[in-house]
Structure formats: structure tokens, C-alpha cells
Design goal:
With about 110 residues, the protein is mainly α. It folds into two domains: about 60 residues, no CATH class; about 45 residues. It is rod-shaped.
Length: about 110
């Protein structure tokens, strides 16, 4: 109880800092649960609590929005599809060229 009275009964800036830390830690924790298996997160929190708290806080502060991640994944997928299409286009162009050469050779006979 003495700790709580020091935190919330002391200067206002201490309370504000604690609230900000808790807020960003909760956001980081939610982000971790969205990205990783829940059992591993709970184990991480139990075994490495101080490190996990700092890690969750940093993830909360520097988190990336789902919309940005989705756009990034979509851009990667589009780039992959364009690369495959380009490769397939080369293959098709080579096959077409070989077919034309074969047909020209047959006509020449």
C-alpha cells in the first residue's frame, strides 16, 4: 500500500508517467498476443517479467498499425506476383521463339 500511496499520492508527474507506461505496456502486450502464441507470451511474462515489461512498453510505443502492415504485405505479394509473371513471360517468350524457329525450319524443308 505504501508504494501505491507514493505513486498516486506523490507529485502529479509521477502518476502521469506511471499511467503512460501502463498504457503503452498494455498496447504492446496486445500486439504481442496478436503476433505470437498466447502460451509463449504468458511464459515469457512469468519467467522474464522485468524484461517483458520493458519489451511490451517499447512495442507499445513503436508499434506499427495493422493497416500499414496489411499494405506492406499486399505490396510484397504484388511484387512477388509481378516477378512470377515476368519470369513466366520470359519462359513463354522463349517457348514462342523456339516454336517459331521450329515452324520456320519445317517450312524451309
Amino acid at each position: 500500500m505504501e508504494t501505491l500511496s507514493l505513486l498516486f499520492g506523490g507529485p502529479a508527474y509521477t502518476t502521469v508517467l506511471v499511467v503512460i507506461f501502463i498504457y503503452f505496456s498494455v498496447l504492446g502486450c496486445i500486439d504481442m498476443f496478436h503476433r505470437h502464441h498466447a502460451f509463449l507470451i504468458i511464459l515469457y511474462l512469468v519467467i522474464l517479467f522485468p524484461l517483458a515489461c520493458i519489451h511490451m512498453f517499447l512495442r507499445g510505443v513503436f508499434r506499427v498499425s495493422k493497416k500499414w502492415r496489411k499494405n506492406k504485405n499486399r505490396a510484397r505479394k504484388d511484387a512477388r506476383m509481378e516477378e512470377e509473371a515476368r519470369r513466366e513471360g520470359r519462359r513463354l517468350a522463349i517457348i514462342d521463339r523456339e516454336r517459331k524457329q521450329m515452324s520456320e525450319n519445317e517450312r524451309a524443308r
